[in-house]
Design goal:
Length: about 90
């Protein structure tokens, strides 16, 4: 499990080559207003998203089937529909 902050290219390659089966990344929450608050606490959402995308690029470059990547988020407001956009973004 990771928040993805330190998931740079070198770390990504080491995790993939180590044979990791599953990588679970939490980038809570998808709500942009709350994300701004979290960024003030040192979690730059844009950087984490970039790291996750780069992880996928490294995995493809290495022609690796593993690890399975799981991205999670917590819904703080059950009426917040931004989770739908969040899912569409990461399912691509």
């Amino acid at each position: 499990y990771t928040n993805g902050l330190l998931l740079n290219e070198a770390v990504s390659e080491k995790l993939i080559k180590a044979g990791l089966d599953r990588l679970s990344i939490s980038i809570d929450p998808p709500d942009k207003n709350i994300c701004s608050e979290r960024e003030r606490k040192g979690l730059p959402i844009a950087k984490i998203s970039e790291n996750i995308r780069n992880f996928s690029i490294v995995k493809k470059r290495l022609k690796a089937n593993k690890p399975e990547v799981i991205i999670t988020a917590t819904i703080f407001n059950k009426d917040d529909l931004s989770i739908i956009d969040f899912k569409k973004e990461w399912l691509r």
